[in-house]
Amino acid sequence: MDRSLLQCITRRAVLGGLVILPVVAARSLADTAQAARAAPRPPPVTTVDQVLNVMEFEALARDALPPAHFGYIATGADDDFTVVRNHDAFSHYEIRARRFVDVSRLDASRSVFGVTWPTPIYLSAVSSQRAFHPDGELGTARAARTRSMLMMLSTVASTPVEPVTEARGAPVWQQLYPTDDWTVTEGIVRRAQSAGSSAIVLTVDSMPNRNNETLTRAMKADTRTCSACHINNSHDRLHKAPMFAGLDVSRATTISPPNMTPVFLDQLRTLVSVKLLVKGVVTGEDAALAVAHGVDGVIVSNHGGRNEETLRATIDCLPEVAAAVGGRVPVLLDGGVRRGTDVFKALALGATAVGIGRPQAWGLAAFGQPGVEAVIDILNRELLQIMRQAGTPTLARITREHVVASTWR
Predict the structure, then answer these.
(1) Three-state secondary-structure class, residue 95
(2) DSSP class per residue in 322-335
(3) Which of 61, 181, 238, 292 has the greatest number of C-beta atoms within 10 Å?
(4) Domains in the chain, please, with CATH?
């Protein structure tokens, strides 16, 4: 059986049958199910310190959340294959471990825009976090504070930038859905900059319409009336997200304009007085264009596979983007990062820093702030372990020569 397909089957089992499996040999599925039933079951996880790896948080989040809320964070586009490949593609790269290196002292710190981060990992934008825990973005921000980690806040977060910045105790990066009304764009940017945000991150891969079948099935399986959070059961983010409060959104029809061109980028560059990054770049051509129009950083991202079923993993897109940028600005990456070894491979292929999205939501759903902290700690611990094993005492020592394409698929 194709490995990507097997990973998809495994993932969809975690989704609790919310998604129809692809057509495969019935015998293979039966054998897989029988083996799963025969495997010894570990004792249930009841405390955060019992979780051994990041992926275990996904099942815990599924158990903790209503179907629609779990479906919201789990969903991809179409058949969810891009979600699966985002992570699976990391296994297509193997690490060349070097010996005869002094690794008695490790330093995983990284300077990004003149700020020293203790590790190259950051919390990428995840929207509507109160759907996962009552503390929402405040719980995540407090976890970021205790771990001195950069947090990127979604435009459609359930908590606005001011209290999140206070909870973080340091500037956050404000992700930007600009809408198709420039006055709204101006309002969001100015509010974020007034709150101290040190960067505006324009998302360029979100289109007005997307086919999220997993979410749709989850919503059908969820019989609750969600009027407490969704007025009249509406999911209209323009009228619900706090970052739009006080702005006239009557002329805005979508959070992401379909006519976003280099002209828009130039206009935004003039407006933004802090660092400007673009998130959602997956080709060298777009990376070069963005740099030519004055952006300060590029984020290789496909929205976690939520928006488009391209079947290209971000780790596979990273080398061409890094080559096109040529070291002129930082190149960040998110999508499918579940292990410290994933972080290592992304750094080796040209990433300056690596973001996590779904894992922070899983940790938040399962245990609140301590869950997010545990996700961070696990990834940091695993990164240090592979740095020692690979003979790279600092991030600067991690180079392209440390990874090779896998010969096993």
Answers:
(1) strand
(2) HHHHTTSS-EEEES
(3) 61
(4) 110-405 (3.20.20.70)
Cα 180 → chain centroid: 24
Largest Cα separation within the chain, whole Å, is: 65
Least Cα distance to 342 among 357, 328, 329 occurs for 357
In terms of DSSP bridges, do strands 115-117 and 110-112 run parallel, antiparallel, or are they unpaired? antiparallel
How far, in Å, CA of 391 to CA of 286, rounded?
34
Q: Tokens 């984020």 — which residue?
A: 299
Q: Kindly report the number of other CB atoms within 10 A of residue 98's CB atom.
A: 14
Q: Is 303 a catalytic residue?
A: yes
Specify burial of residue 182 (Cβ count, 10 A radius: 0-12, 13-18, 19+): middle
Instruction: Please say whether the beta carbons of 164 and 123 come within 8 A.
Output: no
Chain segment 88-126, per-residue pLDDT in tens:
999 999 999 999 999 999 999 999 999 999 999 999 999
Nearest-angstrom CA–CA distance, 25 and 17: 18
Q: Is-contact 159 138, C-beta < 8 A?
A: yes
Q: Which residues of the chain fall below pLDDT 50?
A: 1, 9-14, 16-27
Which residues make Cβ contacts (< 8 Å) with residue 20, sequence separation at least 6? none
Could you tell me how many residues make up the chain?
409
pTM of the model: 0.89
C-alpha torsion 341→61→307→203, nearest 10 = -70
The residue from 87, 92, 133, 303 that is catalytic is 303
Cα-Cα-Cα-Cα dihedral of 356, 127, 300, 202, to 10°? -140
